[in-house]
Each structure stands twice: as C-alpha cells, then as structure tokens.
Amino acid sequence: MAKQIFINLAVKDLQKSMDFYAALGFTNNPQFSDDSGKCMVWSEHIFVMILSHEKFASFATKPLADTKSNLAGLFSLSVDSVDEVNRISANGLNAGGTEPSEMKDYGFMQQRTIEDFDGHTWEIFYMDMTKFPTGQPNA
C-alpha cells in the first residue's frame, strides 16, 4: 500500500461539513463513508475523515478539543498558484467558512487561512521556490 495520510476531524454537522470540504475542492469517497463519517479526498494520498463526535470519540483516548475556541492543529494544503489560493478560499467562505486573518505574503509564499464550522484551521498556500531565500541567516 502506498504511504497516505488520513486526517480525522470531529464535526458537529456531517452534511454541512461535507458541503464545506467539497467547496474547497475535496471529493467524497463513498466507499469509506457512512452515516457517521465521510471520507473526503484531496489527492490520491491525502484524505480527510470528517466524523461525528460520537464516531470520533470511539477512536479517541482523550476528550475532544473545542476547536472553536482552542487550536488543535494547523492543516496546510499547497496549490499551484495564488489565483488557486484565492479561488479555494473564496469557495470556502461562500460555503460558510471564516477567515480569521488577512492573506500573508512571505515573498516566496502566499497563504490564506480558513476555518470550517467546527474551527478546524486550514492554510491554503502557494510557494514559489525560485523566490525562496538562499542565504544563510547570520549566527
């Protein structure tokens, strides 16, 4: 089996969350979806499992975090252009997501942050490696 990543997220409203992730560009894999969880596919190696709180809790060994008021992780998705960063972010906002900060421009990388209904934080970014600083920082 190829190396893959499955990010599991607890969500309050499965359908609303599925619609949000579809707006970002994820597709649903019905083979790994049921009434308590949906497998949302970003690429052939990256999957987000959005799970009801009850389903998520069945796998967890700790209490669920309140991701609306506490940060549990930052998830980043690279894309091919700044236009794609803006398109995906706009789609997420139109689907009900929130943008907690302005676009960040690091010269070689532009990034926007969007949160889903449960406060899970996604950074959508474009990185131009030809603009990446090559000098070593002073010690």
**DSSP helix fraction:** 10-25%
Count all strands and give the number: 8
Principal-axes geometry comes out as: globular
Side by side, the strands of the main sheet go 1-4-3-2
Distance between the termini: 44 Å
Number of domains: 1
| Named CATH topology | 2,3-Dihydroxybiphenyl 1,2-Dioxygenase, domain 1
Profile the largest sheet: 4 strands, mixed
Order of helices and strands: EHEEEHEHEEE
**Strand share of the residues?**
35-45%
At the fourth CATH level, what is the homologous superfamily? 2,3-Dihydroxybiphenyl 1,2-Dioxygenase, domain 1
In CATH, what is the class?
Alpha Beta
On the 0 to 100 scale, the average pLDDT is 94
Structural class: alpha/beta
What radius of gyration results from the CA coordinates?
16 Å
Q: Which regions contain 5 or more consecutive residues with pLDDT less than 50?
A: none
CATH architecture: Roll
Number of helices: 3
Structure in words:
It is a single chain. The protein has one domain (5-58, 72-131): 2,3-Dihydroxybiphenyl 1,2-Dioxygenase, domain 1, CATH 3.10.180.10. The protein is α/β, with parallel strands linked by helices and 139 residues long. α1 (14-24) packs antiparallel against α3. It is 22% helix and 36% strand. It has helices spanning 14-24, 53-59, 82-94, and strands at 5-11, 27-34, 37-43, 46-52, 74-78, 104-105, 109-115, 121-127. The longest helix has 13 residues, at 82-94. The chain has a 4-stranded mixed beta sheet. It has a 4-stranded mixed beta sheet with strand order 5-8-7-6, with helices on one face. It is built from 3 helices and 8 strands; from the N terminus they run βαβββαβαβββ. The mean pLDDT is 94. The radius of gyration is 16 Å and the shape is globular.
